[in-house]
Automatic annotation (TrEMBL):
Keyword Transcription appears in the UniProt entry: yes
Annotated InterPro entries: GntR_C, TF_FadR/GntR_C, Tscrpt_reg_HTH_GntR, WH-like_DNA-bd_sf, WH_DNA-bd_sf
GO molecular function: DNA binding; DNA-binding transcription factor activity
Pfam family, one: FCD
Domain of life of the source: Bacteria
Transmembrane portions of the chain: none
Protein name as annotated: GntR family transcriptional regulator
Source lineage: Bacteria, Pseudomonadati, Pseudomonadota, Alphaproteobacteria, Hyphomicrobiales
Residue span(s) of domain HTH gntR-type: 14-81
Keyword entries, A-Z: DNA-binding, Transcription, Transcription regulation
Amino acid sequence: MDADVGKGRGGDALKLRERAYESIIEKLMARDFLPGEFVSQRQLVARTGLPLGAIREIIPRLESEGLLVTVPQRGIQIAHVDLNLIREAFQFRLFLEKEAIGVFTVQASDATIAALRAEHEAMLALALSRKLTEEEEARAQAIDWRLHDTFIDALGNSIIAMAYRVNSVKLRLIHQERYRIDGRVVPVMREHLQVIAAIESRDPARATEAIAAHIDNARRLALTV
């Protein structure tokens, strides 16, 4: 077989695997798959529109990341939200974000921080003025997640970013199962603005304390709901 042809086929297979992985991750975050739900390989094929071979090859990766588990005689189970998952996911998040926000507090430009404040203040004002639509609540949720992602991105470390992303999927499963931002936009935006105020002080210790308090509040809510 021609070497270039072999490489081409290998590259195509790799792309399919990555597409299959990304598709399942996206569907987990979009709530197309529910925590604890059982699915078959063929159902994964039907929902992603990707080949069975690619789906089979990425299942071990998703299992190693704790997002799926294969249960004999029952099929593939989407990560089940339990107390252990909540504790571990929030602890992992806390460790990474405390370091990340310290870096962000020192390095972020004034313009970047001002944009974060403006986005949060606008959403808070809207939520205080009237009941939000589903679309507006979804936008508020995106603002919530984006702030935390911004801190991690400030590290400029692809290994950390990848690990954080996997943990973020678990956190979003927790949010979907235990509590959502629906009806909680005002307190969430206020907590974020406290974090932003700490960042504006350019004091890493103060910012670290603020993010730790915010994450602990979310963890306690997830454990008690």
